[in-house]
TrEMBL record:
Residues 53-71 have a biased composition (Low complexity). This is DUF4124 domain-containing protein. It comes from Pseudoduganella flava. Residues 73-85 have a biased composition (Basic and acidic residues). Residues 2-47 form the DUF4124 domain. Residues 35-85, 100-119 are annotated as: Disordered.
Amino acid sequence: MSVAQAQIYRCTDAAGHKEYTDRKKGGNCVALDLPEPLIPAPQKREGAPRPRPAGAANSAAGSAAPSAFPRVDTAEQRARDADRRQILTDELNAEMQKLGELRREYNNGEPERRGDERNYAKYQERVAGLKDAIARSEQNVEALKREISNIR
């Protein structure tokens, strides 16, 4: 049984980022003294098929599930989809209510000043925070609508 071995280097760039590689890249690389590997390298057999790269598509099977993979009954899947739709609809309603409250408080960019905002910078900070919260809430509403439309 053979064991795969290679020299490993730890290289550090000017910003201090470390990279571990099998090639020495410049003068800031240090060879690491690692213990013997515990996992032996696979034996190469004559006539054995070559392993496929991780991202390669399996043309024979396509996107079909393996035969041992559990199948879900159509009625069960419809029930799951209905539950998912209900949960997402509830989340959408809550997010739309939150968005309405934020817009009322924002008051077209002129919310009422509170007593603790004697400093105008604090008021502006709160206005900017409200504006950001409104934008984030609008993005959440759009994302939830997309999710609901993707349900079968």
